[in-house]
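PROTEIN–LIGAND DATA SHEET

This sheet pairs a single protein chain with one bound small molecule, zinc ion, given as SMILES. Inputs appear in the order they were entered. The predicted three-dimensional arrangement of chain and ligand is reported afterwards as a token string under its own label.
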Amino acid sequence: MRTLVLNAGYEPLAVISFRRALVLVMNQKAAIVAADLEHPVTGSTSTYDRPSVIILTRYVRIPHSRLVPVSRRGVLRRDANRCAYCDRHATTIDHVQPRSRGGEDSWENLVACCLFTELPVLLALLTFVALRRMEKGVEVTA
Ligand SMILES: [Zn+2]
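PREDICTION REPORTED AS:
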């Protein structure tokens, strides 16, 4: 089991072993965001949560070239597959600020989203497209 490391600004930095992640948490360099509760780590004296996602307590500046590219899977994993709007199981991602209004494909602007939340948006889009087609049709026959 590997652990995803988030920068203090929530952008993913790296994937490390859960042991290294635990050391960071114990040294208060990071906090656990999500843990695999079904598989705790059993140490010699006590049991620990097995971190699946941790966040650094201090912001780390890294060269742009080393940034992890934005991916659908990465966003879903960061948000632990929970819809940012209703907390249901997320299967897709959504732009907080829509692309049509200049929203970027960035870690900050993308959140996990479920189909229930996305569905009204899709329906609105389909209705819009259908209406545009009808308008065109009217123009042609007129
Ligand atoms: Zn939702």
